[in-house]
Amino acid sequence: MQAVGSMATSVGASNLWITGHSMGAAMALLAGKTLAKTGVYVKSFLFNPPFVSPPIERISNERVRSGLRIAGSLVTAGLAFSRTLKQAQQPLQLQERNLSEDPLKALSLWLPDIHVNPGDHLCSEYIGFFEHRGNMEQLGYGAGIVERMAMQHSLGGLLMDAMGVSNAVDVQEPVHVIPSAKLIVNRTASEDYKEAHGIHQWWRDDQDLVSNIYLFK
Q1: Exposure winner among 19, 83, 202, 209, fewest CB in 10 A?
Q2: 17-21 and 209-214 beta bridge pairing
């Protein structure tokens, strides 16, 4: 991250690209996300970046998938709100919090290219993540607020914090979650997981690619 930050300073963010595959994509994502929080937006190409989550996208029943994601958002948002109330020493302090300071707003201007394959369970949840966010927003203003709060917290971190595990706050923010992205899905049939996760798929000339841009509002 220091190397990327130094390079962005020396040559300018508009003259710099960062990229990676698999774990390298996770490193590139973390570097780009860290810079974006400071208002520096670097063009990023991420191939098969890991999404730390149960592989809900591999469940064939769409209603079950949607139900699990909604339940996860409600639980995560509920725990996050409970933690916020617990940290507030007085009710007035909670009311005086500057709600305009949304950490997702600064990140929303960063638009990395994320390349995923539905057959790769390590990254396929990005597909469901962005679709679910859109579905929650369509359900109404309240559901959108729930999803916004859930996005800013890690369910695992919140559970550890609730159980009194020390330093659990360090894992509160899910590193793999970003508010905006250009999602490129390779729907070309893969023979096995190795092919679905491999970097070689992205330079084939017979790919069935579907691209969508998701902008955080």
Answers
A1: 209
A2: unpaired
